[in-house]
Amino acid sequence: MTRTQASEFLTDEQWQAIIHNDASYDDTFFYAVKSTGIFCRPSCKSKVPNRDNVRIFREAQQAIREEYRPCKRCKPTGERLPDKEWVAVMTEYMDKNYGKSLSLNNLADECHGSPYHLHRTFKKMMHMTPAEYLMNIRIGKAKQYLLGTGMSVSDIGVTVGFPHASYFIAQFKKKTGITPAEYRRQSYEDQE
Ligand SMILES: [Zn+2]
């Protein structure tokens, strides 16, 4: 499909979100109203426009490029999420999705930012990179599985986000100084 302009087809779902001022759709799209020349977030409490006049944009910048003005009420270009809250969105996402393959680009997509800006902001606030944070979660979870379950080392690796056992073992050793199997054995010995 080739798109000749930045605006997109208005779906029924989006239309319902606009009618009901549904904030859960904020940042998934913006809507501009041809008759007023203004664009809004889905949650905006302004008067429901005539459906035929609505144009949909993924990004506020696209609407601006087409010379729509941001609504004063819902401030669609608005104050950016403060860094602290943005980083909380990132850590929460990683805390929940550490088992999946997660690149900086995935994270940036999920957390609505550019990879560069996301990486820089995260590092500034957390004093580590997103990749280091993710690695810490994965190794921590792996320790829990090693001690709390009888799962094999390679299955644990897969569960915490390392599809390749050799990479899992190498990373585990780098963090803890011992292999996953040694970690498990030591803890049994400690109990005896
Ligand atoms: Zn508005």
Automatic annotation (TrEMBL):
Transmembrane segments: none
UniProt cross-references to PROSITE patterns, sorted A to Z: HTH_ARAC_FAMILY_1 (PS00041), HTH_ARAC_FAMILY_2 (PS01124)
Matches recorded under InterPro entries: Ada-like_dom_sf, Ada_DNA_repair_Zn-bd, Homeodomain-like_sf, HTH_AraC, HTH_AraC-typ_CS, Me-P-triester_DNA_alkyl-Trfase, Tscrpt_reg_AraC-type_HTH
Annotated signal peptide: none
The keyword Protein transport is assigned to this record: no
Record domain HTH araC/xylS-type: where: 88-186
Protein name in the entry: Bifunctional transcriptional activator/DNA repair enzyme AdaA
Organism listed in the record: Paenibacillus chibensis
